[in-house]
Amino acid sequence: MASNDLIRYLPKAELHLHIEGTLEPELMWQLANKHDIVLPYESVEAIRAAYQFEDLQSFLDLYYQGADVLRDEDDFYQLMWAYLLKCKEDNVVHTEMMVDPQTHTHRGVGFEVFMPGFKRAIKQAKKELGISCYLILSFLRHLPEEDALQTLEEAKEYYDDFIAVGLDSSELGNPPSKFENVFARAKSLGFKCVAHAGEEGPPEYVWQALNLLQVERIDHGVRSAEDPVLMRKLVENQIPLTVCPQSNLKLNVVDEMSQHNILKLLDDGLLVTVNADDPSYFGAYINGNFESLDRALDMSDKQLVKLVKNSFFASFLPEDEKEYWL
Ligand code: ADE
Ligand code: ZN
């Protein structure tokens, strides 16, 4: 059993986090009032009570609806700053966050609105909290590839602010192969690549993400365990999987936390890490994820330390900064 003190005080990196998924019901309520938006809920408690999901799509429907309260620069600043304060609480010293630009541009809120807000909070966190942040520009896979290409073009002025591109949203029926061109274009521009694969989708989607999109990390990837050849490839090449246990539980990827395969993957030699995904919607930030794993799977201190070390090892930090934390 790992102690909660150790979980709390170990410096950590978080590598799989959607900034829009950190919107707490209190801030959603406050911003709805500010912008005269009528929410389909009667109270903050009613918002939280609505967070019961059957699968990924039932979550995404609420997640996109929730993001509609984010309208001006200061809203995005507040969203980012609130998450970075949570990082401080959980001793996350480095975070690599996904931003979903199309969630905003499709409702008339452009890069020139959300990027300055995010950047203001990130700069303040570096200075006041000592936390470093990288951003990942993530494409919505339920939309056509053409839309992703246009989004990459619209981001031009902010290329220096993103370390990588990613792929998220509804996985089933939207395989990585749909996005080969936009990932090739992003790679030619110097971006690193990651993609959600093997969350609800089959191992074949993980193969496609690796072979067709040339990703350096797989987000989720827990269904890789169904394919022994893929497992061998992930171990031999030490390709990181950014696993999100509480997300998997809340979206019914697993029925019980005690059935989660993360520690088995770790013990089999995979480079797995623990992450929160959408902590407001799933009810746990990173330490909460470690704590529920520990409760359900009786994680040893050795496994905990390995998972935390993996988070730095799998990060996009320069080697000398990684070494500082390892
Ligand atoms: N967008 C936000 N969270 C996601 C998840 N867990 N899977 C796919 N897309 C997402
Ligand atoms: Zn995710």
Note the main attributes of this structure.
326 residues, alpha/beta, TIM Barrel, eight-stranded parallel β-sheet, 17 helices, globular, binds adenine, binds zinc ion
Structural notes for this entry:
- The chain is an alpha/beta fold and 326 residues long.
- It has one domain (4-317): Metal-dependent hydrolases (TIM Barrel, Alpha-Beta Barrel).
- 49% of the residues lie in helices and 14% in strands.
- The chain contains 17 helices and eight strands.
- It has helices spanning 4-9, 25-34, 44-49, 56-66, 73-90, 101-105, 111-128, 145-154, 180-188, 203-211, 228-236, 245-250, 262-267, 279-282, 286-297, 301-313, 319-325, and strands at residues 12-18, 92-99, 132-140, 162-168, 192-197, 217-220, 241-243, 272-274.
- Helix 5 (73-90) runs parallel beside helix 7 (111-128) and helix 8 (145-154) runs parallel beside helix 9 (180-188).
- The radius of gyration is 18 Å and the shape is globular.
- The structure holds adenine and zinc ion (ZN).
- Adenine (ADE) binds at residues 18, 21, 56, 63, 168-169, 196, 199, 247, 277-278.
